[in-house]
Amino acid sequence: MKETDKLKEAAIQTAFILESSPHLRAKDTTPRIMYRVILSLLPAVAASVYFFRWRAVVLILVSVAGTLATEALFLLARKKPLAAAVDGSAAITGLLLALTLPPSLPPGMAVLGSIIAISLGKQIYGGLGHNIFNPALVGRAFLQAAFPVAMTTWVPPVMMRVDLATFATPLGNLKFQNALAQGTLTPVKDLFWGNVGGCLGETSAAALLVGAVYLLVKKTIDWRIPAGIIVSLSVFTGIFWLANPQQYAPPHFHLFAGGLVLGAFFMATDMVTSPITPAGIWIYSVGIGLIIGVIRLFGGLPEGVMYSILLMNTFVPLFNLYLRPRILGERRRKR
Amino acid sequence: MTKKYSFPRGIHPPENKHLTEASPLEFLPPPEKVFIPLHQHFGAPAAPLVKKGDEVLLGQKIGESKALFSAPVHASVSGKVLSVEDVIHPNGYPVLAVVISNDGQDRLSPEVRETDDPFALSPEEIKQKVKEAGVVGLGGAAFPTAVKLSPPKDKPIDTLVINGCECEPFLTADHRLMLEFPEAIIKGAELARRAVGATRIIFGVEDKKPDAAAALARHLAGVPATIVLLKTKYPQGAEKNLIYALLRREVPRGGLPFDVGVVVQNVGTAKAIWEACAYGKPLVERAITVTGPMIKQPRNLLVRIGTPLSHVVAYCGGVDDSASLLVMGGPMMGLAQCSLDAPVIKGTSGLVALPQAPEEAEFPCIRCGRCVDHCPMRLVPTQIVKFVQAEKWPEAESWGAMDCVECGCCHYVCPSKIRLVHWIRLGKNTIARLRRKKSA
After folding, report:
1. Quick check: B363 and A10 CB within 8 A?
2. I need a labelling partner for A328 at 20 to 30 A (CA). Which of A73, A224, B97, B376 fits?
3. Which residues of A touch B399 (CB under 8 A)?
4. Which residue of B has its CA nearest to A130?
5. How many other C-beta atoms lie within 10 A of the C-beta of residue B294?
6. Using CA atoms, how far apart are residues B265 and B272, in angstroms rounded to an integer?
7. ipTM
8. Residue A277 · residue B400 · CB < 8 Å
């Protein structure tokens, strides 16, 4: 037997495992991240059930069931292990989609939205990690286009006594009912605690912020994304408010109204569809905040969180490829 | 020392230094047979100077190369050469080695001679003695120290940095060296400073080892040196990060510390420089930490080069039977060993026995960006890996594959458990091969 063969044999007989370095790993895993995000959304889920009762329960259940079933079907068709359906990512999509739906939406439409979210929003690109757009928002954008009336019909929380005929969300009230001039702008206190109309998850900013703080403390979401959105939206709306407070709502109204909190902390922070380099993250987040401001102040729609995030998602692959950080020791580019 | 010196990014893995940090260095009794590889360093292998049947003395030169990037090899015991044959190198490949049967006498070679006044040596004499003693960087890279002490004429050196960070988890041998041999370290550093013509010495020590900094501080008199406490963070001791942390200078891409007027030496290397210059003692032993949850009696040891790992492990009470990962070096950058037959070499900083990690499923990259947020070289590991997987070598190179120091931070933090370092290493090897092909 040759010497090298003997050595090889010794190596094969050893009890030791061979692997390349590093030999230590942090505990966090991708499924853990996913389930942590779901956990962080539970206060908002509880708030939506408190405000909208069985409508919230049904919508959340059917959307999550819809995303899980669609994910499983695609995995079967693509001959991938079915275990990936329960890695938590499809469940998050279903939950987030439900939280962006009006409480009065027929459950069948929610199911259709969840099917679109997973099929056209995620699996068609190759599944987890490969999609360009936030899947939940793809589902919502589809529903908005397909069922514009159902998607903009609002019912108030069960404990609110209001005139149903003129009931609107705080942003709709601001845009279409001249709330500033009438003096009927929703108080920020109500926006914060949730005694307002709107999508399931966007009524109570407080419930969302509990989960957001948890994710920030756990370093699961990148603080730069909500920070960039909040600062740029505040500055943009603040400038107009200072110039003409009779015509423009104050920045703190904009921060707590509509889907801003849900979008800034839970949608824009989606890892797969947000940039990975520092420059990309700042441009992305500031861009989202500015586009929200433009749509809310000058657009035809009262709310712009969904479209601004989807629009900035488009640029993420470009940001990732062209905004590479300067390597340690690399010369700063001279101009 | 109120300002925290550090570098951006990096990680905080569990340190586990408590296992051995209070254990003084012990001399490991030399084994009956030593296996001294002729290639233990960065550069060309040495050629054997002895043959089967020769009598050799402790400290006798038994291998040498004419190449610039190389280091001679010395007998670490006295006795008889049993053979010059392939043994298993800690890197897993066979390597030509001199096998010596130890006569237990430790008869000293006449080559080992004291110097009357080491501080009277000229820079050239210091480099010559360091080269003859086969000193290499003891932090792990095993780069020939004489080469590191010879900056090119057009690159003046102003600062010598002595690296006492020991940022790898588990390892404590350098910490013990600073506590127990501060004088030798400082004297060796002073000789190295003179050899490179630097005006000052900075000792970099992590702030969780204030006792080591205090021990060094007691012997600083007459040496133009300062001690700087650095934030305890991995990889604080990585050369380029340490230079940045202490001096805010960036070693250029593809460059060396020479390019920014700095030379970095590890504390163990400084001690070896002193012993080479003062006593003519070649590098025949080194400090290592034998530790990990699967080692019965974790210890810090002074071990003869060429001692088989089996002998080292046996002295430490053996390895728990269920141990399945035996790492030479630290757990972040060390090499998994396939066999206890491999010997301790000059670059061995420790031996860490870890329990088998549970099988971890790999998930697709979810672009969380944690690898980017923690890379001390400010690379985008996940993107480099995508280029490597697509065999786009020029792209991988321009995104900094060759700048990767393989510290392992990216793989450590990756929630999808993607073998980022492994892939980048594959890319580095391929790019290096393509470069050689191009220049050939």
Report:
1. no
2. A224
3. 324
4. B366
5. 20
6. 11
7. 0.88
8. no
